[in-house]
Design goal:
The protein has about 200 residues and is of the alpha+beta class. Helices cover about 25% and strands about 35% of the residues. The chain is globular, with a radius of gyration of 19 Å.
Length: about 200
């Protein structure tokens, strides 16, 4: 069997970066030298938004055969597509001193109002590696959807979140319908479509 391609370390030399903006997400400019297989070194300048480590959670209620999603306003989506009230999954930054599991549980409480009974790490991915280092660790969670309130969100963070309970079939159909554009949501629902028969094994094992 042929060896499959995979990401690998690069032969790169980074200069001292310059901070362009100090904000909720810091913005840095890097000057770098990239080397590759004896070719002449390539000089590049790249501006990077520092997103850091993030968790995302797909909450599932096996007893009710439901998925819990959320809806909240996203300014970039409003500017980019005119559809700023996005359907999403639970997600948030890993705070200093937190493990990914602690962060995932905290974000579930903040965004859907219930803590997960069980968390299973699935995989990690980068959102837009051309502009940010943000890396998302996706979890599957077992929750009691009957305890999910209609509205949630961390008031001290200015969040106003609508929760959405959907049958698993309807959640999977969202990807085919083309009505949602949130990347972590789409990846999570595609995983769900491929692995639905394994949910019991993963969440109850």
């Amino acid at each position: 069997m042929a060896r499959l391609p995979a990401d690998r370390p690069a032969d790169v030399e980074l200069g001292q970066p310059d901070k362009l903006a100090d904000a909720f997400r810091d913005y840095w400019r890097y000057h770098l030298t990239l080397r590759n297989d004896g070719q002449p070194p390539l000089q590049q300048q790249r501006d990077i938004l520092i997103g850091g480590k993030v968790i995302a959670v797909l909450p599932v209620d096996l007893e009710r055969d439901e998925v819990v999603l959320i809806r909240q306003f996203r300014l970039p989506a409003h500017i980019g597509t005119g559809k700023g009230d996005m359907v999403e999954i639970v997600a948030g930054r890993i705070e200093p001193g937190e493990t990914p599991e602690v962060s995932a549980s905290r974000e579930c409480v903040e965004e859907i109002g219930v803590a997960p009974d069980r968390l299973v790490e699935l995989f990690s991915f980068m959102t837009t590696p051309g502009i940010t280092d943000e890396t998302i660790m996706l979890f599957l969670a077992s929750v009691d959807a009957a305890r999910v309130p209609a509205q949630s969100g961390a008031a001290d963070e200015g969040e106003r979140i609508e929760t959405i309970r959907l049958p698993i079939d309807d959640a999977v159909a969202l990807v085919q319908g083309g009505g949602v554009a949130n990347g972590p949501l789409i990846l999570a629902l595609q995983w769900l479509a491929l692995n639905r028969t394994r949910l019991g094994e993963l969440l109850q094992g």
